Amino acid sequence: MNYKMIVTDLDDTLLNSQGKISLKDKEAIMKAQEAGIIFVLASGRPTYAMRDLAKELNLAKYGSYILSYNGSIITNCKTNKNILEETLTRDEIHTLYDFSKRNNVEIITYLDDTIVSEDYSSYIEVEVDLTKMPFEKVKNFKATVDKDCVKCIMLEEPTYLSKVEKNLKDELGESFSIAISKPFFLEVTKLGVDKGSSLLKLAHMLNIKQDEIIVVGDSYNDLPMLKVAGLPACVENAKPEIKEICKFISTSNNNNGMANLIEKLIFKK
Fold first, then answer.
1. Domains, the chain, with CATH or none
2. Which residues contact 240 (CB under 8 A, 6 or more apart)?
3. Can you give the pTM of this predicted structure?
4. What pLDDT is recorded for position 224?
């Protein structure tokens, strides 16, 4: 198969434990783009927190893309324009806030390029560190969030958060797309929006067939895009449930997993 697109998750997939792209992975990605492969960064991260990585990989030069907020926004790196944007309404965000209070979990959202919450904890600090975005602790979440936003995250200790996930799906699963990314991040986007649905829209725009797409991931919020890929792949450190559905398992994110995949699947080495 002649693949035309590689789509990859960031944290624990493309990025190593230091949050960096290895030199070998970077060189392989450049080589693939030079050969005409469209490269897509697909993450739960905000667009703001992905731009430096896109710049590092020269995505603008090669006409590649960012798929951010778990698929809520797709950005054409060459034009720096959003070609898709799906948001939660203000009232939907307020509904999620009320749920978070009833279930004793923290909640954040993104107001323009600022993370907003009534709380601040070690879990929220992880998101602030990952995204490098400004954080604002507010007295009244509902009063502050007075317009549509792209995504909410509920945060808490993983064992408890998995119970909250079940409660959320039972109570509001017909109204939102819900997925665990990191064990302490429960991510909520507009109903029907996930990495998979947005990837299919992008592929349609570019006249790329599903069987011409390689997707690489490691965790549960990658499942929707892995399921629509021609070739679902993962890194060696992926969750067991992810490995079960993948046709190719690469080396780990700390052992040049992307370079190994590109060499084997694109350049047949």
1. 5-85+193-265 (3.40.50.1000), 90-190 (3.30.1240.10)
2. none
3. 0.88
4. 95
